[in-house]
Structure formats: structure tokens, C-alpha cells
Design brief:
Elements: E1 3-13, E2 21-30, E3 33-39, E4 48-51, E5 56-59, E6 61-63, H1 75-82, H2 92-101, H3 104-120, E7 123-129, H4 136-147, E8 152-158, H5 169-183, E9 189-194, H6 201-213, E10 217-218, E11 220-222, H7 230-236, E12 241-244, H8 250-257, E13 262-265, H9 267-273, H10 280-285, E14 290-292, H11 306-317, H12 321-335, E15 352-355, H13 362-365, E16 372-376
The protein binds N-(iminomethyl)-L-glutamic acid (NIG) and fe (iii) ion (FE).
Cofactor: Zn(2+); Fe(3+)
GO molecular function, one term: iron ion binding
Main location: cytoplasm
């Protein structure tokens, strides 16, 4: 195995309290991990050198929330929304029908295309949820396909109650619970969309508890469409993450601040549903740990661009660029309970991004411009 000196780094953002930001920095990659960090003039001898020619280097983004197993799109639904129609969970059924009708190869190819887009936007670690199958067979094949792309696979059989179960919700809850033992062979996480038009708090509690009993780790879609008790449930269950958090009471904010649950904010969802943005400043000031993720899905947030999400979070959610960058790296890692990614400290995975810009500030300062020069993902 060879060691590589990554050098000539104009600005190196490590996200590590030990090293902070370095100008004229360098680091050594050994067996996929960072083994040395410092000024380039003090760098040790290595087998190979890789010059980044003065570019900015940041940790790879960690996308802790993405729905990538589906086919088709909902451009007409988006267009109608931009003309005044409100978003509702009901649109999910369009994608469920398309996904059920697709072959494994089609689902795999669409996911592969989206993963390539994620990586081109600087994302090096990503989560994938099921949730557009909603039958035993279609949920399990979604998880199986997702597992070929990432270890961060989430079982979201409880995305919505499918149409054929509309009059017998309890039967669908039982069906989802019955899928858990098989789902746990591919998935690490369990998630429920607990909101208006999806699952109630009582249903969510039943499903999440069954998942936890089978060894799945909890994360939850909470408080996207209305302020309910979902965030409280997420905290009670020690979820790694409560996702969306668009509508929060003071009580929710206090509960999150006192918990080990990350509030994952999804700027693409408010953007694409023309909704009011969550107040990230309020969360940070209260001591809540936050993440930013893409929520890539064909309905409410069809973006794979983390720089876009950062720019929107800075402009609309009250974050500084530094806070948004941290939320998209360290925050995402915390939302996946990972300490090996999201930073470039000693021992971290050597997942990093070269920016064609003199500073990370340009991620928000130059919205819509592709500044990702190269994404480097260490082999496991
Ligand atoms: O995270 N909120 C629930 N699920 C997705 C939307 C899925 C869809 O509209 O297809 C979300 O926004
Ligand atoms: Fe989502």
C-alpha cells in the first residue's frame, strides 16, 4: 500500500478542532485514511504526491437523507405547485405506481445516475431510503438495490399508506411490521414519515419500536407539513435524526437541544414545495445539532446538489457559510452516527473535495455555479 501526500492546498478546511483551517497545507493519505496534517513545508516523505494546485479542499459532503430508488419524475406536479397548488404527501402514489412497474435494472440504472450526480456535487457518503415500493416484494428489492450503493440503507416501508390499504390502515401498519425481519438483512435504519397525510404518531411509534426491536436504528421524517408530536417521538426514541423540522414549537426545540437527535434540514424541500424555511439560527442558538441534506426525491426535492442546499440554507435559514458547510459535512455524519467522515482529522476517511475557488465561502457566494473540481472518495 502506498502513502500519498496531498499538497499545495491553498485553503484546507479540516473541520477538526485540532487543525482548523490551514493555508498552504498538506495531508497524507495512507490506506484510505488521513495519517498526517500540517503545513506543506513540514510534510513527511511519501510514496506519491498529488498537487491540488492551490485549490480549496474541504471534507466530502455527507448526505444523510436521500430517496433514490424510484423511476419517473413529477415535473408536472412541480410546475403546478409553482403555479399555486400546495404540496401534499398524496403525490407519492404517482412514484409508487412507476416504481412498482419498473424492472430491477431500471431502478438500478436510475439510482446509479443519481449517485453519480451526488458524487459530482461533492457528496462522498450518502444514505438511501426505500419507500416507493410499499409491497413486501417492492420494498425488499428497493433495499437490496440500495445496499449495492451504500451501507447507509433505510427501510421506509412507512412512507405513506398505499391506496389499496386506504380503508384498512392498521393492516398496512401490520404489513410493514411484518417486513422488518427481512428488511433488517439489508437496512441499517428504520424511518417513518410521521406527518399530515402519512402516518400518525401512534402508528409511527408502533412501527419504529418494532424496527428497534429487530436491531434497526431509528431516524424519522418529522414536522415537515405541520407542527405535531413527531419530533417529540423522535427524541423519545433516541433517533439519530429528526428530518425536515420545518414547523417546530419551543418545546420541540428544547427537546432537540437536550437530546442526541440531530435536526436534519432539507432546504431543497422548502424550495421545491414553496414552503416557509425552518429557522436554523433559532436551532443553533438553542444548542441543537443540525445537518443539511439533499432529500433527493422526485416529488418534494429533486436535487442532488449539496452546494445548492448550502446556498439556500445560508440565504434563507439564517446560517453563516461556515455553519452551513459544517451542517453538510460534520452534521450529516452525526445524523448517521458516524465519526469517520465529515471531517479531515487524523484517522478520518480520506474523503475530500477540491473546490475551484479560493474559499469555501464561494459555495454560497456563487450560487448555481459548479465549483466542484474533483470529488475524492477513499476505498473502504
Ligand atoms: O422527504 N416527506 C416525505 N417524503 C419525501 C417526499 C416524497 C415525495 O413527495 O415523493 C420528503 O420530502
Ligand atoms: Fe425525505
Amino acid at each position: 500500500m502506498t502513502s500519498t501526500l496531498v499538497t499545495d492546498i491553498g485553503l484546507l478546511v479540516t473541520n477538526s478542532s485540532e487543525f482548523g483551517d490551514l493555508t498552504d497545507g498538506a495531508f497524507v493519505v495512507d490506506r484510505g485514511k488521513i495519517s498526517w496534517i500540517g503545513k506543506k513545508d513540514a510534510a513527511p516523505q511519501c510514496d506519491e504526491q498529488y498537487s491540488v494546485a492551490g485549490r480549496t479542499v474541504i471534507p466530502g459532503f455527507v448526505d444523510s437523507h436521500a430517496h433514490l430508488i424510484f423511476t419517473g419524475d413529477r415535473a408536472a406536479e412541480f410546475e403546478a405547485r409553482m403555479s399555486g397548488t400546495h404540496y401534499s404527501a398524496g403525490g407519492i402514489s404517482t412514484t409508487v405506481a412507476a416504481t412498482r412497474a419498473a424492472s430491477d435494472e431500471e431502478l438500478q440504472a436510475n439510482c446509479s445516475r443519481l449517485v453519480a450526480e451526488l458524487q459530482a456535487s461533492g457528496i462522498t457518503t450518502f444514505e438511501i431510503k426505500s419507500g416507493y415500493g410499499l409491497t413486501v416484494e417492492d420494498e425488499l428489492r428497493s433495499l437490496r438495490i440500495a445496499r449495492d450503493f451504500t451501507e447507509e440503507v433505510t427501510f421506509l416501508g412507512a412512507h405513506v399508506v398505499p391506496k389499496e390499504y386506504a380503508d384498512r390502515r392498521a393492516d398496512y401498519v401490520d404489513l410493514v411490521i411484518g417486513m422488518i425481519p427481512e428488511a433488517a438483512k439489508f437496512a441499517k435504519w428504520i424511518d417513518v414519515f410521521c406527518d399530515r397525510g402519512a402516518f400518525t404518531v401512534a402508528e409511527a411509534k408502533q412501527i419504529m419500536s418494532a424496527g428497534i426491536e429487530h436491531g434497526l436504528l431509528p431516524r424519522m421524517h418529522a414536522n415537515q407539513l405541520e407542527a405535531g408530536e413527531a419530533v417529540q417521538l423522535a427524541v423519545e426514541l433516541d433517533c439519530a435524526s429528526a428530518d425536515h423540522c420545518t414547523h417546530l414549537s419551543d418545546h420541540d426545540v428544547q427537546a432537540l437541544a437536550a437530546s442526541n437527535t440531530v435536526a436534519t434540514l432539507l432546504p431543497g424541500a422548502e424550495f421545491s414545495t414553496r414552503a416557509v424555511y425552518p429557522d436554523a439560527r433559532r436551532l443553533i442558538d438553542a444548542g441543537v445539532s443540525i445537518a443539511i441534506a439533499t432529500d433527493c426525491n422526485p416529488g418534494s426535492s429533486y436535487t442532488t446538489s449539496m452546494p445548492f442546499c448550502i446556498a439556500v440554507a445560508v440565504r434563507e435559514m439564517g446560517l453563516s457559510v461556515r455553519e452551513a458547510l459544517e451542517a453538510a459535512t460534520l452534521g450529516g455524519a452525526r445524523a448517521l452516527r458516524r465519526d469517520d467522515v465529515g471531517h479531515l482529522g487524523l484517522g478520518a476517511k480520506a474523503d475530500f473535495v477540491e473546490l475551484d475557488a479560493p474559499s469555501f465561502i464561494h459555495l454560497a457566494y456563487r450560487p448555481g455555479v459548479n465549483l466542484i473540481y474533483k470529488t475524492h472518495r477513499a476505498e473502504n
